[in-house]
Amino acid sequence: LTYAETDGPQQREVAALVYRTPAPYVIGITGPPGAGKSTLTDAFVAHLLERGRVAGVALDRVAVLAVDPSSPFTGGAILGDRVRMQRHSTDERVFIRSMATRGHLGGLSLAVPDAIRVLGAVGYPLVVVETVGVGQMEVEIAGAADATIVVAIPGAGDSMQANKAGLLEVADVFVVNKADRPDASSVVRDLEQMLDLGLSSDWRPSIVTTVATTDTGIAQLADALDDFAIAASETGRATTRRTRRASVALQRVLSVTLARRAHAMAQDPVFVGAVEALLDDRLDPYTAAESLLQ
Ligand SMILES: Nc1nc2c(ncn2[C@@H]2O[C@H](COP(=O)(O)OP(=O)(O)OP(=O)(O)O)[C@@H](O)[C@H]2O)c(=O)[nH]1
Ligand SMILES: [Mg+2]
Questions:
Q1: How many Å apart are CA 291 and CA 285, to the nearest integer?
Q2: Pocket of ligand 1 (CB under 6 A)
Q3: pLDDT score of 241 more than 90
Q4: How many other CB atoms are there within 10 angstroms of residue 195's CB atom?
Q5: Residue 81, pLDDT above cutoff 70
Q6: Pick from 100, 108, 106, 109: which is nearest to 74 by CA?
Q7: Distance between CA atoms of 107 and 93, rounded to whole angstroms?
């Protein structure tokens, strides 16, 4: 995992190995800061290990990737998540890893998919990815999962906030957590209304209310994921999504590779010659770039 996170020759070697074994099933959990994502993950993972199966995937172990885009230090993030996922600190069936943004040229967009494949290759049939839904990148990471859970909580404007970040579009299942708070039912109502207005889709996300701190609603969440997985495979959505994910992953690596190459070209005599031609008004940058690429 460290190699996968750190740009260099080892990262390439690891990738060459892990992308040749089948990908694990990935469940993304995202939502606003403090929504209870880690607490929910903790309770959910405990339940899944008892249940032994979710979304058609048999499991005897689970890996959790906690993606922390705000933390510059992986150590701090690990500490925070360890505290909230205490239940599993001694459970050998659960592997928890925090990832911070740093250290990888392509950032999280490259590191997370690679890390998921590493976990799959070493035998985790299921990877749960927790991201804070604060930016485009985090939403994208969550949206690249086989199933994406969007966590909302009671409190003025929360569903609107989620909407702004583009979280609602990626939801396969909604969780309204902290349902022990008084206005949880109005959040459910808001979500139902929004789904009513939504575009016709082959899947209407279900809404599950939970109290993660007391394991309430966790079994229903697992059931909702089963239902989603069945619908996704029947409609071909599961395959479409995996195809799109592979395509996006390749696009990203291409972009990073080309950008890196472009950067290195600055010393190339052909590049220097092109700059001179631009200075002398003999060439346009598009034609120059095209011939440099060739
Ligand atoms: N009342 C109540 N509190 C909850 C519930 N679920 C989580 N919490 C509390 O909410 C706080 C935040 O929980 P976390 O699990 O750390 O939330 P998070 O979404 O992972 O937070 P970040 O990763 O920092 O964005 C903690 O104090 C939890 O104990 C719930 O269902 N009800
Ligand atoms: Mg968390």
A1: 10
A2: 33-39, 84, 132, 177-178, 180, 211-213
A3: no
A4: 16
A5: no
A6: 100
A7: 28
